[in-house]
Amino acid sequence: MLSATVALALSGQALAATCASAPPRVKLDAADAAFVGRLEQTNAIPGVRDRIDYVFVVDQVVKGDLGRRVTVRSGVGRDALGFSLERDVATGILLNREGGVWLGGLCGQVSPSELVEATRGDEQIVNWGGVVVGLVVLGAGAYFLRRKLNRNRYRPAQ
User: Fold this and answer.
1) Which pLDDT band, with edges at 50, 70 and 90, does 147 fall under?
2) Where are the chain's structural domains?
3) Could you give the dihedral angle defined by the CA atoms of residues 29, 30, 36 and 42, in that order, rounded to the nearest 10 degrees?
4) What pLDDT does residue 155 have?
5) Better-scored residue on pLDDT, 63 or 124
6) What does each C-alpha distance from 91 to 61, 77, 115, 124, 129 come to in angstroms?
7) What is the mean pLDDT of the chain?
8) First-to-last CA distance in the chain?
9) Chain centre to alpha carbon of residue 40
10) What is the rounded distance in angstroms from the CA atom of residue 128 to the CA atom of residue 10?
11) Is the full-model pTM beyond 0.85?
12) Which of 20, 55, 62, 144 is the residue whose CA sits 20 to 30 A from 37?
């Protein structure tokens, strides 16, 4: 969960929250869903002062099953690890799901290019050196097996 990446530090009377440093790929693997999108609006949650619902227009789904619009619940402001967003500016958002509600925040906010780049690790890389070595070993094995079989087959009778 993204909340596990949050480190809290006490400094006198103040409680400061910071995000743990992790590569975007690690954050993406830990997330339930991810997308590149733009903030459309925010909605207050009746009876809740420290949380707000952010409504995003999804430009590109990177992970998970998301619709054209996604509502994400988060803290209010940077100090509560809420989003730091501008309306209609594309950003990468990593999400976790808890009881039917998408959760996100500052620690799950990355640049769109970082988020898309994090998916590139899914492409399979061919290890051509390993392929060549494997073929050489198989070829040598086939050669020596055939040589042994030929030697046993044409053994002169004594």
Assistant:
1) confident
2) 2-122, 126-158
3) 170
4) 61
5) 63
6) 12, 17, 9, 27, 39
7) 80
8) 77
9) 24
10) 52
11) no
12) 20
